[in-house]
């Protein structure tokens, strides 16, 4: 499991600011797998990076803005 404490903290803060914490997709909400959403920071080519510095391959391919 990757370290994602910054994403957890961002989600907890955003719940008070936006409906659903700003997560508008059931897939992105990660509720069905018992996780919190991951907040992305930036992307380059086929890679995306979360606010914790973790690197992912972008298999979703532009499903929403970063």
Can you walk through the features of this model?
The chain is of the alpha+beta class. It has one domain (5-57). The chain has two helices and three strands. The chain has helices at residues 5-15, 26-29; strands at residues 40-44, 47-50, 55-57. β2 and β3 (55-57) form a beta hairpin. The longest helix is centred in the N-terminal third of the chain and has 11 residues, at 5-15. The radius of gyration is 12 Å and the shape is globular.
- Give the DSSP E fraction (strand runs of 2 or more residues): 15-25%
Number of domains: 1
Structural class of the helices, strands and pairings?
Answer: alpha+beta
Indicate the overall shape: globular
**Spatial strand order of the main sheet:** 1-2-3
Rg on CA atoms, Å: 12 Å
The count of DSSP E runs of length 2 or more, i.e. the number of strands, is 3
> What separation lies between the terminal Cα atoms?
23 Å
Please describe the biggest sheet, giving its number of strands, its sense, and whether it closes into a barrel: 3 strands, antiparallel
Question: Uncertain runs with pLDDT below 50, 5 residues or more?
Answer: none
Specify the oligomeric state.
single chain
Q: Supply the number of helical segments.
A: 2
Q: What's the average pLDDT?
A: 80
**Secondary-structure element sequence?**
HHEEE
Query: What share of residues is helical?
Result: 10-25%
Cofactor: pyridoxal 5'-phosphate
Keywords: Aminotransferase, Transferase
InterPro entries: PyrdxlP-dep_Trfase, PyrdxlP-dep_Trfase_small
GO molecular function: transaminase activity
């Amino acid at each position: 499991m990757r370290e994602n404490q910054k994403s957890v903290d961002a989600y907890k803060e955003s719940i008070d600011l936006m409906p659903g914490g700003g997560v508008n997709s059931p897939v992105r909400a990660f509720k069905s797998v018992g996780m919190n959403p991951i907040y992305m920071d930036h992307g380059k080519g086929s890679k995306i990076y979360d606010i914790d510095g973790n690197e992912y391959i972008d298999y979703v391919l532009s499903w929403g803005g970063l």
